[in-house]
Structures are given as structure tokens and as C-alpha cells.
Amino acid sequence: MSEEARPSDSGPEPAPVVPARTNEGWQPGDPTPRAFVERVIRVDQAGEFGAVRIYEGQLAALRWRGQGNSPAARKIEHMLAQEVEHRRAFDALLADRRVRPTALSPVWSVAGFALGAATALLGDAAAMACTVAVEEAIDEHYASQRDRLGDDEAPLRDTVERFRQEEVAHRDEALANGAEEAPAYDLLTAAIKGGSRLAIWLSTRV
Question: 88-93: long-range contacts (C-beta < 8 A, 24 or more apart)?
Fold first, then answer.
């Protein structure tokens, strides 16, 4: 197991220091606390939408392979159900906070489905490797947001942390189900993780 993909075995993560105010200590040129919260909601809705499309693409490919009822398909269906819940939560936040969604949603719809289908066509291990890469990128992203959301945004912070833990569980399940057996695992996951980080950066701003 690569060091990058290996779940931490050093015990529970230390509790983060919770700021009293969101984006505390922001400087000129940084997003204001309000703008930061809007970015959080916009990018997280886009990310969960993309995750839904990835799993939908994987399931479509598995059905095409005649494996729509396989153990891998059942695991992906469970992950998909949680991602749909996450997306709906951020859809509601977009509406409640009157936040503009990313203009890149049509791109992420096509790209996410294509990524999911392509990895599933490579085999179950490649599909699981895709999950590892995407969920590790999301774990980093959500942890960074959690640490900058203050007590004034406690419900949003709690939502982000709950979803982060579920994404980590997806990663761990994928590792336990043969992700590292995928061909060129390190190259595949590095490429997908890099693309995920780029999509996060773009969705925050566009």
C-alpha cells in the first residue's frame, strides 16, 4: 500500500482548533467571510454533483459489462446514495443562501460520468482506485474548509465534517476492496487526484 493512500494508523485525528469567526484573520485580497461561505457552498455543491455523476458512470459501465448486480456495483450504489444526499444538502444551501452555482456544472456532468465509466470499464479495481483518489482530494478539501468555518457557521461546519467522514469511509472501503490492484495504481490515482484538485479550484471561482 502506498504511503499516500494508506489510512492513518496513528490513532484519532486531533480535534481542530475552532475559530470563533469564519475566515478569522482574513487580510485585504482574501475573500471576506461572506464570500468565503459562498465559495464553500458553491464548490461543495459542484463537487458532490460531480461525485454523483462519477458513480452513475461507473454503474452504467458495470451494467454494460453485465455486472450490474455484482458486489462492486452494490458497493457503488451505496456510495452513490450518500453522494446524492450530500448533493441535495448543498442544493438546499444554494437556494437558502442565494448562492450562484458554478457555471461549470455542464462540464462536470460530462467529465464526471466519463471518468466513472472509463475507470469501471478498466475493471473493478480501477473503479475503486478512482474512488480512493477522488475521496482523498475531497477529504483534504473538506478538512481545510472545516478548519476555517467558525462558530458563527457551526451548522455548515458540522455538515462539512459529517460529509468528510463519509467520504473517508468511501476511500477506506475502496482500499479494502482491491483499489491498489488496479493497473498503474499510483499513476492512475495521481492523475485523478490532480484533476479533482483542479476542478475544486475552478469551481470555487467560476
Answer: 89/48, 89/159, 89/163, 90/41, 90/44, 90/45, 90/48, 91/45, 93/41, 93/45, 93/156
Distance from C-alpha of 52 to C-alpha of 136, rounded to nearest angstrom: 16
Q: What whole-number distance in Å separates Cα of residue 100 and Cα of residue 110?
A: 20
Nearest to 81 by CA among 170, 144, 197, 196: 170
Helices (H) and strands (E) in the chain, counts: 6, 0
What pLDDT is recorded for position 117? 95
Average pLDDT, the chain: 87
What does the alpha-carbon distance between residue 133 and residue 18 come to, in Å, rounded to a whole number? 28
Cell numbers for 89, please give them.
Answer: 444538502
Q: Is the pLDDT reported for residue 5 higher than 70?
A: no
Grid cell in block for residue 79:
456510495
Written as one letter, the residue type at 185 is: Y
pLDDT at 82 over 50: yes
CA distance 179 to 134: 12
Residue 63 to residue 203: CA distance in whole angstroms: 31
Residue 6 backbone dihedrals phi, psi, to 5 degrees:
-70, 125
